[in-house]
Write a structure and sequence with these properties.
single chain, 487 residues, Arc Repressor Mutant, subunit A, Aspartate Aminotransferase, domain 2, seven-stranded mixed sheet, four-stranded antiparallel sheet, globular
Length: 487
Amino acid sequence: MAIFNNQSLPTSSAKYLQLAEMIRQAIRNGQLLANDKLPSVKSIGQDMQINRHTVMKAFAELIAEGWIESKQRVGYKVVANLPIENSRAVGVSPTPQPLFDFNLVREGMSLSERRSEKFEYNFSGGQPDLSLFPFDEFRRHMANVLARPQVSQMSYGDSAGLPELIEQVKIYLRKSRAITNREVVITNGSQEALYIIAQLLLQPGDQVATENISYPPAISTFKNAGASIVGIKQDKLGLVPEDLADKITGGKIRLIYLTPLHQYPTTVTLPVSRRMKIYQLAYQYKIPIIEDDYDHEFHYRCQPLAPMASEDPQQLIIYMSTFSKVMFPGARVGILAISQSLAKAVIQYRLLICHKSNVLMQAALAKWMASGDFSRHLRRMTRNNLVRRDHAASILQNTSCFEFTLPDGGMALWVKLIPPNITASHLAEKAKDMNIYIQHETQYQLSPDNNQDRYLRIGYAGMNENKFAMGIEALVKIIQALHEETK
């Protein structure tokens, strides 16, 4: 421990008292915290070059004063309840100076008071079931990487990502999404990709067009770059191209952001005819499109529509995806499939924020994909999520509290509350008290004027069928109680 390293005790008083005071001061100034374990008597004696009996005597003094305690098979540790009044009274100014006040010129996204995974019932719409990930299988690929490391890849360089993974991703995109002739850049999740694109393409005063109900992290990223957001009307088929055309001619739209396969959060799949109209508008007015294809793998009724980027002769579409839904969010592997000129700009800008990606994770993922295990895992997950989607639909239909349209794919349902006297946001707040996390319409609406406050986004992929049913049962009880209160 640093406080005992290469230190000597002054000789003005007994050495055990000097050591005891040194430890007191370490506790007072926060170097040692409540419940921190102290080094052994032997190691302190060696570091301080004093007799072990001197250390024992200092410890005895501190135990008597209530600073530390001795635990069998643990050793010495700082007590859980420190003598705070005494520690504050000694050596601390009665009128501490205020800390430096930073002049912040930008703000990030607001932090949640409690993360969704901390709730017993987590209905987060994009959360995979981490218990289903084949960690043992993936560990073998990671172990193979560690057993035969490519030392040349461990240094700086390759800001675009590990070449082996880039090659596997190109094969995957070609076979599963008909995306070819693109440069692939591997990012630290799709959020980093969004940030880089926003910084490269937007400046203060620009506008970004997206659906009226959209993905909050993307909106925050565009605003951080100085852009304002233009909401485009939606109907049961998704974004309305005619309204987009009106907004383009009447403003300064420099970027379009879409989630066309499973619109976030409403789950609607944008039909081919509308995709074509949007593309024609983008080409006519020279506006790039970000196509965020965040959960392409999970489509059930039929084969998913090919991404817009698969038919993009002008290469104006910025295609992005992520491995967070098929692996786990902590993997932090995102994909950009973009034109050669934009790829060069992205790689160069990425050097400002990330000199090097996680080589070990990317190498293991590349081996996992090349082995065929990745494809088998995807098939298992798709079958599993289909079962959970149908089960979730059956449970919700039997409650008489919700109405919804069953989506063709995705990981969540966009559900309308039937009781007219209950708002979705109020229900979500009440649910937190019952250890239930659920997302609601207000979190996604760009304009308060459009907010009906009637919809919930209920994720079904992250919990098994039994736990999902128990969570919905608890949620229905809250709805019934609120209904009775507001009659």
